Amino acid sequence: MDCDQLELNPRITAAVRRAKVKTVRDVMCVSGPDLQRLTGLSRSDIQQLILAAAAASRRSRPIPALLLHRGECRGFESGLRLSAGCPVLDRLLGGGLPVGGVIELSGESGAGKTQLALQLCLSVQYPPRYGGLGSGAVYICTEDRFPSRRLQQLIGQQVYLRSDVPPAEISRLRFSDHVYIEHTADLVSLHTCLSRRVPLLLARGLVRLVVVDSVASLFRSEFQAADWLERTRHLLTFSSCLHHLSHEFNTPVLCINQVTGVFSGSVGSLGPVSASVSPALGLAWANQVLVRLMMHRLQGTVSRADQRSALRRLEVVFAPHLAQGGRDAAVWTEGVRGLAETPPFDAPL
Description:
Elements: H1 10-18, H2 24-28, H3 32-39, H4 43-57, H5 65-70, E1 81-82, H6 87-92, E2 97-98, E3 101-107, H7 113-123, E4 136-141, H8 148-156, H9 158-161, H10 167-172, E5 179-183, H11 187-203, E6 207-213, H12 217-222, H13 228-249, E7 252-257, E8 259-264, E9 274-279, H14 282-286, E10 291-304, E11 307-318, E12 325-332, E13 335-338
Parallel strand pairs: 3-7, 3-10, 4-5, 4-6, 6-7
Antiparallel strand pairs: 1-2, 8-9, 10-11, 11-12, 12-13
Helix pairs in contact: 3-4, 7-8, 11-13
């Protein structure tokens, strides 16, 4: 879509045309400060331009929170949620992950993202009355080997994690038979997997959860900084495929994402510069996500009996039906559990 088609003040449109920023894709792939430098527009003008470009990039209309509350949207009409397997985390998530839509879980290495994803691969297999969807999961690995030993450990500990489910119900489920694992080493094999093999599993009712771990690794490894336009084209094609799977089969798609450092500080200052992290792949990817969650690994540890865990925190960054907030959590032998109250800290790791 050309920038001339955006509903903007003619003055902004003229400045964008002079800067030879022709398409919405060009706007989405350039940072705000660079757009200011190229066009000479003010910060508020650039904000209007980015918002208009983001709205034009949506492949589906935004979902109003009121419709979600009433249950009048596809993926929400039945009130189904995929439980995280922990009542504390489920309360944070409004009952669990929405059934339908692309959900992003980002965080630093070791924050517990894969642990929670594995837990969801087991939770999805429970009947709906126990927070599951009565089907399996497909887990697509793009960087590391699938953690099969940890999965088997979680399976053996389900009776301790899911105290809300009768032990007879847990023993009836053959968890390991319903987690389908794919390894993709490049974008071509990832596209083949998502466009051919995954739809077959979904159409046959064998899976109701798709996990991509991680979404950023291939895009970071296959493209250089100068290839941003080509990278964005592939990224939008990838996200379009995810949305098709989610809406066609009414299934949640969980994308684990890496983070990138964001530094802030006064220009020319010799003082300390603060650093934080934000999800990788920028604004072009952020506009494809329905729900964005982040996991952080905090300082200090928590103890329980003979176990110790680094303190984590799961946060809702944005979601159309949830308020921003977070819960402290820990990774135990049986899985990820939210902490109902802020625990006393042990010594930092």
